DNA sequence: GTGAAAGCGCTAACAG
DNA sequence: CTGTTAGCGCTTTCAC
């Protein structure tokens, strides 16, 4: 058969009349081995097309040089950028990433974490689903001594590290900006309050309203999720209620897109009839019409920090203290939420 | 130390006064074992929080139940959707995906494939970088007997399977549509011709122009890549040349976005001054202004087929014949490329 | 039905 | 510097 089993260290050892150990060491650049033999071994390995067997290597060395990652979504600008950054950082640190996708499904999340544990990853980075409440699986991870870092969507658990963006402060800045523009009737499409990003973005909204002495209309704090449908339905309901706010803060950019779709369908105008801003940038916020102002999340930095923190913990497994890093955000101002309300009213007359 | 080594089959065997073999078989549902013992073993394993060790399992069974994937990019709508589909299909087939990202870099691509081989994946799905020309690494994959499936961006190699979209036919339909609208001065921002998607999308353009007896202006076939910058620069150069076409077909949607940016910067209007369409949809093509007509790529189907084909090959390793599947596309018509040229001219007077 | 023996390919610890 | 000895945790024969 063509499909002869793979070449092993032994094969190349025989070829050179040395022991497998010598070959193993040579290939890994172990200082035990003399320059010449090392060179020779490498040459032969190369010629023979030797491919190491990581399963064997990892089994005996009890390290995998891999970090497991669990995210709820891939086809979403925030996550795809985050993932890219995680891959990049890992690559530069000679670590493999084993990515899994929970599809916002708790059971899949658990299954994937079990698989990653079974693969004996050296560490774990996870961004939980919108529904994750049960900590049991994460307790199991901790019990097995695997470093665990939450990123963006976190669970409050002792012994784990977190990397988040400044959801509360970022939202505050956005709402404050809207208020300074003259808006007072402000709504928030707020996702879900049970998850940190939903809660903190709500709190930032509350902070700003309080600071400026504006009342919060409970009917204008609308929960329903983080996707386009949530934005679409949210706005439709707002419209049907007959009591439209002047300004909407959308908890994510898909939610904002949903609002755009609804507004368009209703024949309304942004910013004439309703103005908007959202949390989270995307590659196209600047191309949609009107271009969408937002609170930018530095995804690249999030990914960097998440990986580096995890690596750090892997390398100092016994002395590591859990860290909680919050990355600052910045406002990106484009066409929405950029015209003073007074001017807007003048114009629309 | 808390960090006691993981539980093993032996541990749970001792607990029950049976052999590791019995436990191993029981856990895997091997028919050798009686219902009762199987039940019992599973219960104890559960209670003790046993986590199997896939490295050991795979080492001895010589299968990994994992498919390696190499893509050039993640933060791009096409790839992120494709990836999501691949993950989904694999999940439903109880296979793991080990994803790697080449970042359009040939050396990284090679490194990742070597890692994947070393991890002993059961199969490989790859979408090559824009620069990949050298087949050596893929020959190595074949020599090791690992099923290899190219998706979307393919290399022409005997013994490998491919899943692509109908690039040529899709482009043909788009250009034909533009011609029917009255456009004759047609340009293409064509990516690179050395890669199948660039070449075939060009050929579709050529097919349509030929069919309708329209001349192809060489200055209007512009190569330069598949990203936003290629679109931006391409249009800028077109503009500077003083000889603008009426219609541009962009080889990808980022290229189209680049054109939008350039057009905007120059104070021109779509579709008044220039009309456009592109290959590839995204979550926001419909939100940008004017909304962007395009040739839709069924990414979900691509992912399904790629995984299923690979799995098929894994399971019938000796009898499998390489397959080449081309998935059809459809036109999605929105605001661009939707107004008859005559009307357009009337309007702009 | 169950288990003892052997080995997957590699590395760690120690001896020479 | 090099090699021997023992596993890593699991699965695969093949006896019993």
Task: Explain this structure.
Two copies of one chain form a homodimer. With 349 residues, the first copy, chain A, is α/β, with parallel strands linked by helices. Chain A has 13 helices and twelve strands. In chain A, α5 crosses α12 and α10 packs across α11. Chain A is elongated, with a radius of gyration of 26 Å. The interface between A and B is large, with 58 and 58 residues. Chain A binds a DNA duplex (16 and 16 nucleotides) through α2 and α4.
Summarize the structure.
The structure is a homodimer of 349-residue chains. Chain A has 349 residues and is of the alpha/beta class. In chain A, 45% of the residues lie in helices and 15% in strands.
Keywords:
homodimer; about 350 residues; alpha/beta; 434 Repressor (Amino-terminal Domain); Rossmann fold; 3 domains; six-stranded mixed β-sheet; 12 strands; DNA-binding
Name of the CATH superfamily of the largest domain in chain A: Response regulator
Most residues in contact, chain pair and counts: A-B, 58 and 58 residues
Biggest sheet statistics of chain A: 6 strands, parallel
The name of the CATH topology of the largest domain in chain A is Rossmann fold
Q: Span from first to last CA of chain A?
A: 83 Å
Helix-strand layout with pairing:
2 copies of one chain form a homodimer.
Chain A: H1 9-16, H2 20-27, H3 35-48, H4 54-61, E1 66-71, H5 77-92, E2 96-101, H6 106-118, E3 123-126, H7 136-143, E4 148-151, E5 161-165, H8 167-180, E6 186-191, H9 196-211, E7 221-223, H10 228-240, E8 247-250, H11 253-265, E9 275-279, E10 294-296, H12 299-315, E11 324-327, E12 330-332, H13 341-348
Parallel strand pairs in A: 1-2, 1-3, 3-4, 4-5, 5-11, 6-7, 6-8, 8-9, 9-10
Antiparallel strand pairs in A: 10-12
Helix pairs in contact in A: 1-2, 1-3, 2-3, 5-12, 8-9, 10-11
The structure holds a DNA duplex (16 and 16 nucleotides).
């Amino acid at each position: 058969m063509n499909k002869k089993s793979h070449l092993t260290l032994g094969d190349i050892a025989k070829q050179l009349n040395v022991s497998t150990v010598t070959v193993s060491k040579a290939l890994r650049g172990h200082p035990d081995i003399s320059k010449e033999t090392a060179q020779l071994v490498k040459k032969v390995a190369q010629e023979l097309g030797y491919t190491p067997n990581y399963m064997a290597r990892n089994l005996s060395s009890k390290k995998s040089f891999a970090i497991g990652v669990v995210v709820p979504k891939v086809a979403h600008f925030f996550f795809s950028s985050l993932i890219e950054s995680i891959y990049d950082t890992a690559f530069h640190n000679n670590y493999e990433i084993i990515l899994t996708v929970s599809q916002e499904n708790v059971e899949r999340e658990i299954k994937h974490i079990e698989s990653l544990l079974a693969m004996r990853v050296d560490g774990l980075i996870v961004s939980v689903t919108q529904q994750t409440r049960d900590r049991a699986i994460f307790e199991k991870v901790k019990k097995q001594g695997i470093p665990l870092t939450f990123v963006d969507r976190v669970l409050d658990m002792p012994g784990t590290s977190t990397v988040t963006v400044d959801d509360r402060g970022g939202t505050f800045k956005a709402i404050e900006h809207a208020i300074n523009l003259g808006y007072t009737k402000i709504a928030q499409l707020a996702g879900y309050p049970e998850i940190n990003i939903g809660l903190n973005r709500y709190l930032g909204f509350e902070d700003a309203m309080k600071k400026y002495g504006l009342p919060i209309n409970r009917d204008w704090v609308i929960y329903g999720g983080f996707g386009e449908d949530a934005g679409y339905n949210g706005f439709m309901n707002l419209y049907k209620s007959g009591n439209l706010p002047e300004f909407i803060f959308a908890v994510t950019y898909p939610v904002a897109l949903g609002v755009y779709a609804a507004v368009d369908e209703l024949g309304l105008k942004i910013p004439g009839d309703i103005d908007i801003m959202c949390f989270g940038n995307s590659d196209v916020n600047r191309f949609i019409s009107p271009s969408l102002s937002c609170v930018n999340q530095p995804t690249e930095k999030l990914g960097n920090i998440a990986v580096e923190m995890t690596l750090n913990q892997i390398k100092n497994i016994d002395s590591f203290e859990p860290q909680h890093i919050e990355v600052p955000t910045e406002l990106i101002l484009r066409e929405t939420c950029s015209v003073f309300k007074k001017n807007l009213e003048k114009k629309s007359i």
